[in-house]
Amino acid sequence: MLSYYFKLAWLSLRKTPLLSVLMVSTIALGIAAAMVTYTVSYMMTKDPLPAKSDRLFTVQLSSWGPDQPYLMVDGQEEIPAMVSYRDVRGLKAAAKAKQETAIGLFKIMSRAEEQNRRDAQMRMIRSTHNDFFSMFQVPFLYGNAWSEQDDSSGNPVVVITKALNDELFGGANSVGRHIVLGESLMQIVGVMDDWFPIPRFYYLSSQVYQDPEALFVPLEYQINQQIFSHNDVTWSCWQDVEDVDFSVFIASDCIWLFYWAELESAEDRADYMDFINAYVDEQKSAGRFARENLSRLFTIDEYLRWAEVLSNENDMAVWLAFAFLLACLLNCMSLMMTKFYGKGSEIGLRRAVGASRNDICWQFLCEAFLIGLLGGVLGLMFAQLGLQLIQQIFTYLNVTIMQMDLKIMLMTLILSVVTSVLFGLWPIYRAAQIQPSSQLKSL
User: Fold this and answer.
1) Any idea where this protein resides (predicted)?
2) What is the mean pLDDT of each run of 10 residues along the chain (443 residues)?
């Protein structure tokens, strides 16, 4: 019987093509606007590491100088998000976490060994520890992370991204080949597979939605080579260290590294915080960390919210888009009312030959279902066009932000059908109340 109602609904849509197109297009526009906004917001704010985000913590220490606070926000003292190399050495040596890594950055000319010097390009290089790759679930296409020996000695080894491997080596297995950084010959030990954590939480900057850096080297390599890009990275000192030797800089309390720790479980947070407090007390005894101890740990989600990467502005945009969808649905409901009331004579005739009100309601429900389904399919097409347009405008953003996954596509279709049926209930109810006698008199 349901197939019969759908057949009648399809014939009804074909009888009024202009009105049907208006209803489907109205829903499609509303659905597209809502889902484009929702997709971008969802992809920009989703958990970048859901399997372990509750066990990963960034460490912030009260390491600023005694003269004045690092920053005041709403009357409250704020501590730095970064730590000094001196504290990295101290935290690493204690080895209280399952895995831990410092994360730095520098800028230098780079090229494949086979390329001419004039083909070299200036690139940002990520300096870190080998735990970085397992902590943040970095997949490898070829090779692997560098060894513990490479980590501690700062050997000239490098891990590169799949994109850079495609650019320099045509996608071939480049493990064992060499890249030149500045004047140093670096051996490739690993090629990452596609890896795009969104947001790029591990080193927050203004580029949290861009692709990861193309090259990763041991932090100790950067220290050994005394490379520091003062003008291209974030760093800060409470002491006067201008125009001093690099060794003096890294031995100072200048902050320029992010520090992350992975614990065995989320329940270990309190114990690790006790260790951090004990470390701070130890430094106070040594004449450092003169300010009140405000040191803390942040999970990924807490850190992103503290840094205002995740904010209410994203939610506001989604609410506005869904308000536009509501306006479109109200317009569609008005068009349905016009269409269903225009079928008064047909309703009267069907009621006269034995059709019940339930039969009329089922037919119109099927019609509302088809309108919603067609609107959802067309809305998906409009949404894809909208996402491609955003991608063309904001070329610096990671392309995965503008891609709908299967879950969002299914949600789009379900939302379109459900809202179409819900907003069609009132026109259906009003049409079902039409009296056969009054309509038959007009025939």
Assistant:
1) Cell membrane
2) 79 86 93 88 82 94 90 89 96 96 96 92 96 96 96 97 96 96 96 90 78 94 91 84 76 94 96 97 93 95 85 75 89 86 68 70 88 93 90 74 84 91 86 62 50
Q: What is the CA radius of gyration of the chain?
A: 31
Q: Within this chain, do residues 208 and 98 fall inside the same structural domain, yes or no?
A: yes
Please identify, among 250, 278, 306, the residue that sits at the C-terminal boundary of a domain: 306
Q: Which helix (H) or strand (E) holds 57?
A: strand 56-60
Cα(369)–Cα(7) distance, integer angstroms: 12
pTM of the model: 0.79
Helix or strand run (H / E) with residue 331: helix 312-341
**Distance between CA 264 and CA 440 in Å, rounded?**
77
Beta strands 99-112; 121-128: pairing state: antiparallel
CA distances from 95 to 85, 89, 276, 289 (A): 16, 10, 12, 21
In total, the chain counts a number of residues equal to 443
- Which domain-ending residue is among 274, 306, 338? 306
